[in-house]
Amino acid sequence: MNLKTGLLITAFILLAAFSIQAQDCKLSIRGKIIHLENNEPIEAAYVWIVEAEEGAVSDQNGNFTVKNLCLGTYTLTIQYIGHKTITDTVNLESNNYSKTYRLEDEALELSGVEIHGHRDAVQTTSSVSALYGENLLESRGENLGESLKRISGVSTFSTGNSIAKPVIHGMHSNRIMIMNNGIRLEGQQWGAEHAPEIDPFLADEITVVKGAETVRYGPEAMGGVILVNPAPLPTNKFRKTSLNLIGGTNGRMGNINVVHAGGSEKIKGFGYRIQGSAKRSGNIKSPDYFQDNTGVSELNLSTSLGYSTSKLGVEAYYSLFHSELGILNDSHTGNLSDLENIIENGRPFGDGEFTYDIVNPKQRVTHHLAKLKSHYHISESWKVNFQYGFQLNHRQEFDKRRGDLNEKASLDLELFTNTLDLYVNHTHKNELSGTWGLNLIQQANSNVPGTGVTPLIPNYDMVNVGMYAMEKYSKGPLEVEAGVRFDFRNVNTARYINQELQTADLNYQNFSAFLGGLYHISPDLTFNSNLGSAWRPPNVNELFSEGLHHGAAAVEIGDPDLKSEKSLKWINELQYDGNKTHLEFTAYLNPIQDYIYLNPTGETYVSLRGTFNVYEYLQANAFFYGFDFAGSYEFTDKISGYLKGAIVQAKNTEEDNYLPFIPSNRLDWGVSYDFAKATDSRTNKLTLSNVLVAKQSREPDFDIAPAPPAYALFNLAYNRQLTVGENKLNLGLQVQNLFNTNYKDYMNRFRYFTYDMGRNVLLKINYEF
């Protein structure tokens, strides 16, 4: 071998070695950081690779990635304030290394740092969206249903402009469970015009789970779950007060809210919070006229006490919701020709006038909720939880009546609910975690005597017992979970019809299960899929309604032979989070066997109190499917935009026609300009947005009036955050329906009688001190 050949071979070997080394230095370490106590992801934990002198910070999902590492052994440390540091040795041999790290709380006394107790995480591989921070602040003053319309795939089913029920993927009422601070909200939610008895001001975060969640929460969660959670109580010395003042031009609305939270310096682990709000508005104005008797009066209160140590946690909670609201006068007509004329006219014949007075027809609702919750750490990995909830819901609906009867409620219901939850969480430093539990619900619903009207629904007693188990496997970018549940329900009813006692004793039982997975394809891209079976027994109103439902201005007829609904929902979601781009796309299929729906018959009922349309509860196999999407993009440091929309398809597969009251296609987009300097983190933003709602072309074979035409609404919002000493002052100016557009929404039950709300200018002030 000559010298030249030897040099060439040597150069080739060195080049190959360099190439291999370069290839081997493109490896990465990926992981997920969560709380050991409750599996909640930890954002902003610091990860450091000692030998490489490289680091990373976990994102909002607890994920981190350290890139451009070579083959070898590394020392990895993870640090997060208030938690024990983890040190791990990683032997990096391939590009597939990933691991889940669970951080343990560490008792520290930190001066000037806000420390809160933990709340249970939303442990699900289903599609989850949340309203918090700036978005939640912008929604203040709206009811729960209107607030949640900011989330793609969520709309409302309304009765006028004051009553709105959340709709998730085309489902509402008894198919959507609302959790108020961990307690399932139990009111008369079966009514289309029965808004959730909850004050959105108590929430620090509102989370929407779009999958079938009956295993986790019970039969009424087949369409999804809404979690309304206050902030965790402080556990150290801490004081904070938040004041919200809101005024609106339409209805001349005023809204005030005060929240104060604190922690004790002398009693470590003790925290408290008290919150109250009041709201008053008068007659709503459509672009050309006032809607008579559409005022609202609301008064709410909540308070919490908690004590937490490293082993034990105890919390007591109470909330009061009281509301009185008017029902549009023109929805109650005198005779058949009046009803036909106003439907044909599409609006009231008079222009009305403004007043704060609320007269019959109206609703008056009072809801009490009390909760006692405790948990105890049996060991580092096992925690037992106990929760008891009591609720009293008193609903009164008043109709136009003669003489002394006008002061008496036509529908007067008292619902008592006791719930008991006993469950065990286990989390380990390896990849396994899970929950096993027992759930008990007892209800007694009574018609208060003296209304002078045959009750719409009978008195009933209900007992539901549920047992469930869920297990989750987490390793780096992969999460897999499965669960199974069994429920048994007994319902006893009784009422007098024509002085004859009618009773029923009904039993329902079923299994439900789910299997789901989530995978982080890359640090920016996540895919999750969840397949869940669900069921729902028919509600008492669906079985036994017989008469005039005053708040809905309709006669409703039940069917005692209705069967339980059964469904199988498959939901898939793809999320991308880049530096300037956020995208999420959700698609679902949901066949439902024996779907129950309220259908207009085309008939009318004439009585001394007026003429009303007649509806009946029917049952058929149905197929729901659709998709929703949301995205945002930062065009420049100053300009950003968002786009979101939803399409819901629902069909009666037995008769090959469409179901009533399914949301039409909608698209929402907006563009924002940020006036703040790059170095200023305070909000200073102007947003122009547009809501496009298509005409519902998939109408049922019969409806009282055709679906209204498509509409487009423009909205304008300006939000500014100021610093007053060490405190924050948030100012907001919003103009809804900027061009005062006349429109009707298909999902508004009063679209037969009136247009929706006209322009509304809102001034919002939030001061935190």
From TrEMBL:
SUPFAM superfamilies: Carboxypeptidase regulatory domain-like, Porins
GO CC annotation: cell outer membrane
Every TonB-dependent receptor-like beta-barrel domain range: 344-738
Keywords (A to Z) from UniProt: Cell outer membrane, Membrane, Receptor, Signal, TonB box, Transmembrane, Transmembrane beta strand, Transport
Signal peptide from the UniProt entry: 1-22
Cell location: Cell outer membrane
Any one GO molecular function term: siderophore uptake transmembrane transporter activity
InterPro entries (alphabetical): Beta-barrel_TonB, Beta-barrel_TonB_sf, CarboxyPept-like_regulatory, Plug_dom, Plug_dom_sf, TonB-dep_rcpt-like
Database matches in PANTHER family: HEMOGLOBIN AND HEMOGLOBIN-HAPTOGLOBIN-BINDING PROTEIN 1-RELATED, TONB-DEPENDENT OUTER MEMBRANE RECEPTOR
Similarity comment: Belongs to the TonB-dependent receptor family.
Protein name in UniProt: Iron complex outermembrane recepter protein
Organism: Algoriphagus locisalis
